[in-house]
């Protein structure tokens, strides 16, 4: 019996070893070695040419290599697959366009670029000053104009016209709003809204374009009311100089704005502050210079009433309506200068003078 059990164990061992040998033999026999795949990686490249007569129209030249298929996407939900497409954009905006190339082995490559069609790059608004505070409008566009619509908001209800060169009359010293919309012959549209229409034309605030500024005296006792507040673009802050406790300065108080390129300023504004009307500036001049040594007076004023009283005369009945307002003045003979200076000569008798804003417009 013992001998029979031993023989059975030996037989099982032989069978197990035979299976291992057989499995090993089968594995070696069935092993298949595949060749390395032939990968083709495409190279994507293109050139863009804008139509010189129509800023909305572009031609794309494919310069890609090792590709089988092309996919052009223009950032406006448009897809094209031809080799050298042309494409028209129908509105202004920023478009992320890209070209994807696909090789014979299905591998992909992509190149993308921003196309930015800004309204100011499509058309420019022109103005011609006419007698009687009138302005004649015009347009210069980088595409053939099909139709134009002007909407003027200085009156209520607003006035809409399709004239090519409308004429408007503006009250001196006021800023007014208008919108002009152009549709090109091919159907593309562009719209510009401006809040800076005046009797001097459509102006631009260049105060913040300055290279720097200087001031003849500084408020060193109150950082919240120093010279930076005069040029920060907000009537909610102010420059205050002097006071009853001996913090004196000498008139004229002068602040000069410096530019790297000569600017032709057509208008400026002064803002009053929020307390004691007798601290308002009473007399001043605006001057221009190219060397900082010789200054030419461009405009000079002596007020008959405080700014506070002027607003009351216009119907203001609350402090909120009288304080923190801008007062605009035109320069009769604009000339280009590298430097502009506000020279404050006096206030209304208070020990301190304050002013919330000084801005210049070209």
UniProtKB/TrEMBL annotation:
Pfam families: PKD_4. Residues 71-117 form the PKD domain. Keywords: Signal. InterPro entries: Galactose-bd-like_sf, Ig-like_fold, PKD_dom, PKD_dom_sf. Residues 1-25 form the signal peptide. This is PKD domain-containing protein. The keyword Phosphoprotein does not apply.
